[in-house]
Design a protein that fits this description.
The protein is an alpha/beta fold and 528 residues long. The chain has 19 helices and 21 strands. The longest helix is centred in the middle third of the chain and has 29 residues.
Amino acid sequence: MAAKKYALLSVADKRFISNFGRDLLKSGYDLLATGGTYARLRESGVPCKELSRIFKSPVLLGGRVKTLQMQVHAAILADRSNPSHMKDLQKQGITPIDFVVVNFYALPQKPASAMAVAAGAMEMVDIGGPTLVRAAAKNYQHVAVISSVEQYREISRELKVSGTISPETRLRLASEAFAAVATYDAALNAWFQGMLPKEALVEKPRAAPKELLPDKVTLQLKRVQNLRYGENPHQRAARYAGPNLSVVPFKVLQGKEMSYNNFLDASSALAIVSAEYPEPIVACIVKHLNPCGIAVGANEVDTFIRAREADAQSAFGGVVGLSCPVGGALADELRKTFFEIVVAPTFDADARQVLASKLNLRLVQATPADCRTALAAGAKLSAHLFGVMLQEHDLVQENWEDLQAVTDHAPAEALRQDILLGLTFIRFLRSNSICLVKDRVMVGAGSGQMSRVDAAEIALRKAGKRASGAVLVSDGFFPFADAIELAAKAKVGCIVAPAGSKRDQEVVSAANKLRVPFVFAPYRHFLH
């Protein structure tokens, strides 16, 4: 007579557990269950036994101890091929467990302070579940372990076909189980860091908070989407998320599937419209991670038109970012140009109807408020051949009082707003970069150039006649006066750049000679 096979079920996520329990019964397993899982199975008419009664291990500490029992773990960890192990089980009257089905409690929302402990949030920290999963995964040669609802269907199919779980499947399930535990532990780490008082997280003035740049970082990433391809069709790609990444919630409301490059450009567009601006409406068009037009204003349609017309040629096929909801009137204007994506907080029913005819146009719903939260809470991660680097996002917002006019001629008061806007816009252009701002619109940009004079030439050419009276902003210092001469020839109204070159005085002298107001800004804004 074949020995009985036992499966232990103890799940927080109880979706489909009754159906899976029936599949295990059909494959010859007797079911043992704990607490709420036992109740759910019984309610569904699935025969099972309560774990505490079989192992005579009472539930203790108000439920904190249900599965943390010597007998339970011995039943899971015993090596069936080791006579000594089996003898120990026999002496203690312990029946081996051959199948473990466990998933973990969902963590509560990130607490605002340690007061969350008093509210009972700590009861949601799972101890027994990960311990069971680790034990079963360690003994994968004899025990199958399921750590996710998504695994039920595949395992049910294998049991139906062969009546057992193959060694290869048990090994893979064990690997996935250890990954599930690691992911859960990483989420716990992030959750506990969120409880630390903010004053304990700052090392010194202007130092990166410890929660942004910790001594150790555990990256547990789960693939959430296969992409059509990467930057090019011959490159495979997928999108991942994890508990220690600050990810902005979003919905794709219509259009083709998002690609690798689409996500990058949409992220850039959302970041641009999420910065701080003096007026409520911001619109931008992004091409290959760089904005070709940015505008701020008080009217949705007018602001978008000004952003698009800043470089109408480059805008074709671009990604639109908007800080405002999209209504019918704005949708009418959007559909006049071919765009790949529109990112906005919401799209009302009229806008959806207007844009529905653009079958390939992707409408992405994401809010600037969520973006600002994510940027402030998480570090920017860069992986390359020499390792992984983390840094704070460049969220510096310059103040007028921190700027220094260094030429004999001060900039006109009317240029103040464009100067400050330019110092925000320049943060989103790839270095080396130059932008020109006029009447709250970025009218010209030169980015990603090997020399600053090349960047200036491109930006001035893009701006054309609009360069006259505009503000020219550089993301880094000017190493030579050549770009200053170009700006003066185009009759720009003011030049803004950080100091730092050994030729700063030569550059300022050239600006004085050419009668172009020059302003030193306190921060450099490289973006690689």
